[in-house]
Specification:
Low-confidence stretches: 1-5
Largest sheet: none
Radius of gyration: 23 Å
Structural class: mainly alpha
Helix content: 55-70%
Order of helices and strands: HHHHHHHHHHHHHHHHHHHHH
Number of helices: 21
Length: 456
């Protein structure tokens, strides 16, 4: 046998078997990953021989290690392709003081994530970071200096556009399949292709555009980590995305980062912190935000207040969101907020009224939301459908609720999302009140076959 002395082919074979993949399915996955890197693989018959030789221990897949790691979304050592790495310590949740420090911090985080640093994936959020990071950004001056170049290479706008196009591709993947699909591939791309760009020379215009684009990619890494249930890791990415947006002098993007942090805080039950994060987003973008963005920030505040059962505060925030959204002009909006339309605003109303235990109004807005979507945001449609199911259940309509929940399970058959599983878990708890209902019993029996239900 040729190859690495640390090679353990039985682990590689076991991973494919565990997933129930055939060799053709693995080859298809390898081709998908290779296409992202601009690589062309040999014909299927040749690849099938390669796979057989790798899994039988007759050859080490030296040129294919990175593709296998990405296809399986599993570290090389877990596939038997490398020695187990010595676990690194999880990087702290610090807001870098300078642009140069932010480059070092995000590069360290990418490396630690890819190395599965000890405790990083299971880390809990740091409550103090939800206070210190927004404060540091709010008091920062406009026009933060760009970092000094560390290498002689020059970055151009074409490089920035390439990064943006790649991040957009991962955004689409996240919307359609959930954060558990491709999260590691995104981090791999940022670490291998983007890290050196941050250290290169550039003009002022290109440098700001680059940092803004990398901040968007880091914000996406945060969302995907959050969606995958890695909350401490997600918070670290949110904080670094905020600092990168500051370097980019992009107040709008920074506000959206704070709004996303508010979203996560609400999900984790930190409602007071969530409301404050949303208010910080409004405060920090007063001279910069568009009507769409500001409406979305108020909606995030309303979400947190609804969970606190603050009906008056929630109603005020929703009224603000509605009034401001009436003035929205999509042509003024940055691309990253384009998803927030009337259907999304209705979805936020549905969430709030469900949490305020007003099921009639929650049902109305959830149905309005679902009637206004075009199917581009599968996970969002899943959430809205589950809100409808919760509201119908609270309204005493278990049959209709179970029908809606089954529609959500059908929608979510391709989603890898811990958040989706959490919505199902909440619905499952609500079902306890109808334990003797035949329709509910049938639903539970049918739901057992769905992967998302199995993870609740």
């Amino acid at each position: 046998m040729t190859g690495s002395p640390t090679y353990r082919p039985e682990l590689l074979r076991a991973e494919r078997t565990r997933r129930g993949w055939t060799q053709p399915k693995l080859i298809y996955a390898l081709r998908q990953v290779a296409a992202l890197e601009g690589r062309v693989l040999p014909p299927d018959a040749t690849m099938k021989r390669y796979v057989a030789r790798w899994e039988n221990g007759h050859a080490y897949p030296a040129e294919y290690v990175s593709l296998l790691v990405q296809a399986y979304d599993t570290p090389a050592d877990a596939l038997g392709l490398a020695d187990p790495a010595t676990p690194e310590a999880a990087p702290p949740v610090d807001y870098p003081g300078t642009a140069d420090e932010s480059i070092d911090a995000i590069a360290s985080l990418w490396r630690a994530d890819l190395a599965s640093a000890q405790g990083l994936l299971a880390a809990e959020p740091d409550l103090s970071a939800w206070h210190s990071a927004p404060l540091a950004w709010l008091v920062s001056a406009d026009g933060t200096p760009l970092p000094g170049a560390r290498v002689r290479s020059q970055v151009g706008m074409a490089d920035v556009e390439a990064v943006r196009a790649t991040v957009d591709m991962f955004v689409d993947m996240d919307n359609r399949f959930g954060g558990g699909h491709g999260r590691r591939s995104l981090i791999q791309y940022l670490d291998s292709d983007v890290r050196d760009l941050l250290a290169a020379r550039s003009t002022e215009q290109v440098g700001r555009a680059l940092f803004s684009t990398v901040a968007e990619g880091t914000l996406l890494a945060a969302w995907m980590s959050y969606d995958s249930g890695h909350h401490g890791l997600a918070q670290r990415y949110f904080v670094q995305a905020l600092r990168l947006a500051q370097t980019a002098d992009d107040r709008r993007l920074a506000g959206s980062v704070l709004s996303a942090m508010s979203h996560q805080a609400t999900f984790l039950g930190r409602y007071a912190e969530a409301a404050n994060l949303a208010r910080a987003a409004v405060l920090g973008t007063q001279r910069h935000g568009t009507a769409t963005m500001t409406a979305q920030f108020h909606a995030m505040e309303a979400r947190a207040l609804a969970r606190l059962n603050d009906q008056a505060g929630c109603s005020r925030a929703l009224a603000e969101a509605t009034s401001i959204f009436e003035r929205h002009n999509p042509r003024e909006d940055p691309e990253f907020i384009s998803y927030f339309d009337q259907a999304e605003l209705s979805a936020e109303f549905g969430h709030c009224f469900r949490d305020l235990e007003l099921p009639g109004q929650a049902t109305t807005y959830a149905e309005e939301c679902l009637g206004g979507t075009d199917g581009s945001y599968v996970r969002s449609d899943f959430f809205a459908t589950m809100v409808l199911a919760d509201a119908l259940l609270d309204h005493g309509e278990p049959e209709l609720a179970c029908r809606a929940a089954m529609q959500a399970l059908t929608l979510g058959r391709q989603l890898k999302s811990a958040r989706c599983a959490a919505y199902l878990g909440e619905f499952r708890t609500r079902l306890d009140r109808f334990a003797g209902n035949a329709t509910v019993a049938d639903f539970i029996e049918n739901a057992r076959t769905h992967r998302l239900w199995q993870t609740t």
